[in-house]
Predict the structure.
Amino acid sequence: MVDKIEFTGNTGQVVDEVPLVEETAYYEPTENDKELTAFVVDHTDRWRDYRNQNHLDNWNKWERVWRGIWEAGDKSRESERSKVISPATQQAIETRHAEIMEAIFGQGEYFDIKDDINDQNGAVDVEKLKKQLYEDFGQDKVRKSIDQIALLAEIYGTGIGEITVSEVKQYVPMTLPVGSDQVAYGAGEKTRVSVKLNPVNPKNFLFDPNGVDVNDCMGVAIERYVSIHKIAAGIASGKYLNVDIGAMYESDELESTQEVTNYQDDKVLLLTYYGLVPREYVTSEEFAEVIPEADENEDTEDYEDMVEAIVVIANGSLLLKAEESPYMMKDRPVLTYQADTVPNRLLGRGTAEKAYNMQMAVDGSMRSHMDSLALTVAPMMAMDATRLPRGAKFEVKPGKAFMVNGAPNEILMPFNFGSNDGAAMNTSKEFERMLLMATGTVDSAGQVSQVARDTNMDMATATMIKKYKRVLTNFQEDFLIPFIYKAAWRFMQFDPQRYPSVDVKFLPTATLGIIAREYEQKQLAFLIQTLGADSPLTPILMQGVVKNSSLSNREEMLEGMAKATQPDPAQQQQAQQVAQVQLATAQADIQNKNAETAKTMAEAQKIAVETEAVPKVAEAKLIAALSTNLSNGNEESDFNNRARIAELALREKDIDNKHQIAQMQLVSSRQTDKGNSE
């Protein structure tokens, strides 16, 4: 959305000048303003007391061990001299934070959009909407803000973010034609809607102790120091009432730097309240008159008719802003999530809290070792002061010469207390192992804790991944997705030209961090090795390996692998043609074999018929032969001899015919079986 373009040419002159704002008198607060200020300040003061009494001391301790700042209160004994602090908690916090950030942003996109099927406005171009959101989030540095919020959650246990909406100016290079052949070079001023996510330190956050989340509280507030020039700019733009700020705020209670001396000049204590207030305090007098009065009850009369409002107070007493919630969804622009869940409480538990006790044990062991080492290495000297030269300054250092009256071994004597055997350092290593086990992180070598290595590496890694996923779930469901919804609603409200009001669903895309991804890659590689390169599942598994990698050209590789796994249309058509030809050939062979089988069977049947007829023909020939040319007088004997010879000939002929028929039947049966098998 472009409201105005101011062109500054190469001459340095501004084409369109903004008129100066005339000075006006300071705003005088009304009675409603005073009552509203008292209402908000009274509640936030009580919430601050609750926070400081229950959490502030612990937050300071956890911040010190994260930053490695020594304090006398952290000593394990009065005689302790060393101030060394182990980096174990720092390692645990930074490792867990890096893993969560990799899980959120490692794949590039950290959310997706799905169109709502019940949307009454019709289908929406979700891809365009997603690209616009990613572009605007990039300009407003949302990723950097999320990174800081997640780090604060690991330290203090709770991540807190504030959503603000403003119009920001951008300068873009432009050229304007001057005359027919000349061009003026310069810059154009462009205005756009900005939705920012501001990290909030828990020490700057006030909340209703009776609520378990932001929406359950009567209200929440954020107090911070800001430079006076920002207040002046807000007054000039009409964002704040024109009040007299007066003296600067000189307290340093909210400073999170833990420095001894803080900068006191030109700063204003700004309290921003988001929550319920009595309607009459933020409603015009005309409208307030028509609101019916309820029965008077001193305890509840201020809470009977409440509206969601935004109230800004400077230096504890000056009302800068008071209005009903301007957002169309009437939602609060504050989000929180727990790093580690603590049921029925708004504040969570962070890595520093889980590591603190073991951190103190590690530091105590290390300091004990350092103190004993100092006593052992640097000798203490006993001397006879009466035999030293008058006015001699005694000190021990390399190359030092001593002037004594008498034998030196009788005057000077070094002595030590005990010895340093290194047992304290071994104890500190065991405490550090317990710290890493409590936080579920890795040691400086990038390995899981010693207990995990001694038992089951894969099981320990899987357990650690599950803990990370629990934190990731809290972040996605309680913070990331609600923030995207709130940001989209504000873009729809204040920049409707680019963001039409549509109902869509936002989905998180974060999956695996570095450790989880490496663990899964290991499992996929083992599965690929087991199946072999020729397995049809191997290309699918390879795609999974590439998808879970952090390669910059991951998408191009996946696209190439997908194309490689798809068959070539020309080759596929050729294969189909070859298959059809082979099928036709097989069918023709079957038909030929069936024909040969039928021919063979017909020939067998013909032989059988002929065989059946042979005995009858032979019998007729036999009778004719027997009755022809018989010898006179020996007819009977000659006939009998001829009959026996003919019978033998017929039997031999019958055997040959039967053998031939059996061979033909065997051949026919073999051919039939071969055809069926093919």
About this structure: The first helix runs from residue 31 to 67.
